[in-house]
Design brief:
The chain has 332 residues and is an alpha+beta fold. The protein contains 7 helices and 14 strands. Helix content is 33%, strand content 32%.
Length: 332
Amino acid sequence: MKVNRFMSIKNCIILVLGLLVSVSVKAQYKTSFELLYASAGMKKTLEQNAGKLITEFNNAQGEKRNLSLAGIDIAPEAASSIFTLWEICPFRCDEIEVVENCTSKLTGGYQVRNIPMIMEPRSGEKFDADRFQTIVLNFDAKGQIESLFFGIRSDEYKDLMASDREVTDLRKRTIILDFVEQFRTAYNKKDLNFLQDIFSDDALIITGRVVQRKTQEGAVAMPGGNVELITQTKKQYLSRLANVFKNNARINVVFENIKVNSHRSNKNVYGVKLVQHWNSGSYSDKGYLFLMWEFDEKDETKPPMIHVRTWQPYNETPKEKVFELGDFKINK
């Protein structure tokens, strides 16, 4: 009887320890939020909703299971977008607590930026470059999560927004930067529908290609060599892009060195010049990307449209040859 009693106590201890370990393992994945400058009436709602979402990322990635958004107040469109991003490459947050500013969006609702994430490719995939990313969470006026995007660097965003510009220009710049982040995220989640909508039907798309020089040893590409500019229609560009999406399980696009300029005479037109890093399973490159955006003159609530997209190889393109807003004539 003593032996049985001893074994019973031992089993209970093992069971309790097992439960404690299980709880401990679960707890290590939790991320809470402290949102600064959030309105008193929304602070708790926003913090809890953000914490639930990020904690679920952590748990799903840590436990190698499918993502579940049950119990999280999130818009259907946002949930669908997140599932798509997750299927391409899961991610997690290593922070126990995220302390960030919560800002009121000029278009309504709230935004939290600079949430640190670590990309965790599935077994057999590589993610050596740009593994550390930040995301942006957007909430509607009631605190529901309405979108998630990969953000641009916090220091660049602050520099682009820190000025004494007129209110109208500041509002448009804010919208442009939000759409630049959506534009980048669209490539990461291979969202052709978004790209179809954001490019105007008559968009001018120019892609630079290094022309190989013929030498005695054969044809080789050399830094500073000739760059051939290829013009495409929207239909041609998206058709080729669809094949790229189809043939690559994962695409990672990162933007940096972002510059935003308004047109001198047409206040509805903006130019965005940046450096783009493209990494996929079969191809990687770095280049200068220029985008010309235009707001609808009659209805500024409509999303801005891209009329020009150019890409030029980074090493082979002198800075004075990089496309910018003044290189294109605008017909009113």
